[in-house]
Design brief:
By secondary structure, the chain is an alpha/beta fold. The protein has two domains: about 5-95, Elongation Factor Tu (Ef-tu), domain 3, CATH 2.40.30; about 110-260, Nucleotide-binding domain of ferredoxin-NADP reductase (FNR) module (Rossmann fold, 3-Layer(aba) Sandwich), CATH 3.40.50. It is built from six helices and 16 strands. The chain has helices at about 30-35, 75-80, 120-130, 150-155, 175-185, 200-215, and strands at about 5-20, 20-25, 40-45, 55-60, 60-65, 65-75, 90-95, 110-115, 135-140, 160-165, 170-175, 195-200, 220, 235-240, 245, 255. The strands form three sheets. It has a seven-stranded antiparallel sheet with strand order 4-3-7-1-2-6-5. The chain has a seven-stranded mixed sheet with strand order 11-10-9-8-12-13-16, sandwiched between helices.
Amino acid sequence: MPSNKLHQAKVLLHRPAGRGYYRLVLLAPALAAAAAPGHFIMLRVSANLDPLLARPFGISSVITKRSIELYYRVAGRGTSLLTRVTPGQMLSVLGPLGNGFPVPDKAVTPLLVAGGSGFPPLLYFAARYGKQARLFVGSRDKDCLPPAAVMKDLRSRTKAIHYATEDGSRGACGFVTDSLAGYLARSAGSEAPVIYACGPHAMLASVSRLAAEHSIPCYVSMEERMACGLGVCMGCSVSMKAGGYKRVCKEGPVFLSSDIDWKDRVVLPVLQRK
C-alpha cells in the first residue's frame, strides 16, 4: 500500500511540453520509491492558503527511482498558479495515494485507452508493462492529443498506437471508443486482452460497456474532483453496483469497471462508420 506521507519535493524541471501541457519533475526519493502505475499525489501549488486545497495529479513516470514526473494542463486557478513555479522551489506533496492498476499477467495483451487528458497514469503503466500493449488514444482534434514527446515515448514502449479524433484530423474519425470497438471485433478470440482506461466519465462508461459485451476484464482510473485526498470528505465518492459508495481517492482511483454503477453516467454512442 502507498504511504500517505507528506513530502517536501524540489522542483527539478518545469516547462511547457507542447499542445497546452506542462511537464513537471519533482525530486522526492521516498515518494518515488513507493509509487506504482495508477497512483496519484495531492500537490499544494503555492506556499500560502490561496488556493486553500491541494490539487490531485496522476503520476506519469518515476525517473531514476528518485523523482516523479507529472503532466498537466491549465484548467483553473490552481493549475494557473502552478505554471509560475520555477526549478529549485520546494512544494508540499502528499502521496503516493490510492490504489493503482493491478500487475498484468504475462499472457495477456493490455489494451490502454486514454481520452482527453487521461494519458499520465497510462504512460507510467506503459513504462512498466507496455511491451505487449496496444494504446488507443482519442481527443477532439490533433491539437488536443498528448504532447509529441509523450507520443514518441509511448511508441517506443507499446506494440501499437491507434489514434482517433472527433474531427478526423489524426487517425480514425470518431471517438476513441469507436476505434476500440473496431479492434475488439477484428481480434475476437485471437488474444487474451485486459483493458486499462483513463479519461472522461462518458468515455469510461462506454469502455466499460464494450468490455462487458466482449467479456473482457476492464480497469478504469476515475477522474473525480477531490478536496482532501485521504477519504475524509467523501467528495469523490462513486456509486457501486453492490450498493453504497467508494471513494476514488482511497479505494480507487482504479476500479474494476464492472463494479461501478454507471446508470447515472452519460454513455457515448459507438458510431458505425464504414
